[in-house]
Automatic annotation (TrEMBL):
Residues 85-152, 179-233 form the TRAF-type domain. Residues 288-309, 381-441 are annotated as: Disordered. Residues 430-441 have a biased composition (Basic and acidic residues). One of its GO terms (molecular function) is zinc ion binding. It comes from the Eukaryota. It comes from Penicillium angulare. Residues 36-81 form the RING-type domain. This is Zinc finger RING-type. Residues 408-426 have a biased composition (Low complexity). The keyword Zinc-finger applies. A zinc finger (TRAF-type) spans 85-152, 179-233.
Length: 441
């Protein structure tokens, strides 16, 4: 089939009620070889050119029409630029089957349909089985549309309005059951976090202020994975180190984004310059060929030499300019990459210093806690206090003569007696002295 016959065919993809397969939400992936090079979607009614490249019928028709308006002589393939004048409507059946097996959602998913079907069956699903498809009301006097699942066998119109007894709102009959069970704002519901019974209309406001709702830390985007009650989130954020250095992270992210944007623009400029250089080279080659054909009457050697000389001079100047631009862009990209590496190193060093400071604070805190623990253990040791109390009671029940005999120095002269007389009466050693001397606060 030639191009004129193809354009003369009446398209069948714009029929009323036809599902647009390109606008469907994909659930499964598909091979890149099944993608049309024009619309970048899976093939829809594919056709094949002489060069064996396949395109959608609608895409190829629009491409041929737009190209014919500019150049009526021929049509090049959009992929390989090969001139073609014929095409084939028959493509391998395997290709069509692979495109039809792509899993998609129902086009009425926004209305509530949750079906996932192959793309080749989506039209049949919408026309016959989808309950959310709008159809005319069975009552001929009603001009409204109703969903297929709301139809009744009695052909009764369900577009009359009923008043809800709780919220005093007028609801259409076909939506009244759903409104009465789920959507009525006067329904009472229970907060899943605190167990409070609230109205349906106030549930969203209650959840936003409920102190029992689990909330994430403000530094969750920086790596803090803590999720605690909303009433305790303020205390946590005051102690979280990531919240303290959050402004620094924000500044670094802003700077990184600006550098990435600049790098992207430079890459685009580099690609434009490379394309321009390629076009200049192709133009020079074509001009040299045309000059050689026009100067066939002149000596071939002189013509080729002059054409080559002029082409080389022009090509060398243009190439030198474009290469200098390319080198400057490459230097700017290298500078951007070095700046990004420097920022990454600075961020890593600041995080490491903050972690070291936190570890030192924790070590001091642990030392203080251990010291307090040792003091509390000594104060609450019943053995030491029991021994000391027993010794005091024994000293209190002894007779005065015994006490005097205990504190009277020996009559035998000697250094010890002299020392005892000079220092006064000696205190007897108690069993608890050893334990006390071995305890250090």
């Amino acid at each position: 089939m030639d191009l004129k016959e193809f354009l003369a065919l009446e398209p069948n993809y714009d029929a009323e009620g036809q599902v647009d397969l390109r606008s469907l939400e994909l659930v499964s992936d598909y091979d890149s070889h099944l993608m049309c090079a024009i619309c970048h979607c899976a093939f829809v009614q594919p056709v094949r050119l002489q060069c064996d490249h396949v395109f959608c019928e609608k895409c190829l028709r629009s491409a041929i029409t737009s190209f014919r308006s500019a150049d009526p002589d021929g049509f090049p393939c959009p992929s390989c630029r090969t001139p073609t004048s014929h095409l084939s409507m028959s493509v391998p059946r395997l290709l069509i089957n692979m495109c039809d097996e792509i899993q998609v959602r129902c086009p009425l998913a926004t209305e509530g349909c949750e079906e996932v079907v192959p793309r080749g069956h989506v039209q049949s699903h919408v026309d016959k089985y989808c309950g959310y498809q709008l159809v005319p009301c069975p009552d001929e006097s009603c001009d409204k549309m109703t969903r297929k699942k709301d139809l009744q066998t009695g052909k009764r119109c369900r577009h009359d309005y009923w008043r809800c007894s709780r919220c005093e709102e007028d609801v259409m009959e076909q939506d009244y059951e759903e409104h009465d069970k789920e959507l009525c704002p006067s329904l009472e519901t229970v907060c899943i976090d605190c167990g409070t019974v609230v109205l349906q209309r106030a549930l969203k406001t209650h959840i936003e202020a409920c102190p029992e709702v689990l909330s994430s830390c403000a530094a969750s985007k920086y790596g803090c994975q803590v999720k605690i009650r909303r009433a305790e989130i303020t205390t946590h954020e005051q102690q979280c180190p990531l919240v303290a250095i959050g402004p620094y992270f924000e500044a670094q992210n802003t700077r990184l984004n600006s550098l990435e944007l600049t790098t992207r623009h430079l890459q685009q400029r580099n690609e434009i310059f490379e394309d321009g250089l390629a076009n200049i080279r192709s133009t020079l080659v074509e001009s040299s060929r045309i000059d050689s054909r026009r100067n066939d009457t002149a000596p071939a050697a002189d013509a080729e030499e002059s054409a080559d000389r002029s082409a080389n001079v022009f090509s060398s100047n243009a190439t030198t300019y474009l290469l200098s631009l390319h080198e400057s862009l490459r230097e700017e990209v290298n500078q951007m990459s070095h700046a990004l590496t420097d920022l990454d190193a600075r961020a890593s060093m600041s995080i490491m210093n903050e972690c070291l400071r936190i570890k030192e604070d924790m070590a001091h805190t642990n030392a203080a806690v251990n010291s307090v623990r040792m003091q509390v253990q000594w104060l609450m040791n019943p053995r030491l206090h029991g021994t000391r109390t027993g010794a005091m009671r024994t000293n209190g029940t002894s007779t005065p003569g015994e006490a005097r005999s205990q504190f009277t120095p020996s009559s035998t002269p000697g250094p010890s007696s002299a020392a005892g007389s000079s220092l006064g009466p000696l205190r007897p050693r108690r069993p608890s002295d050893t334990g006390r001397e071995g305890t250090k606060l």
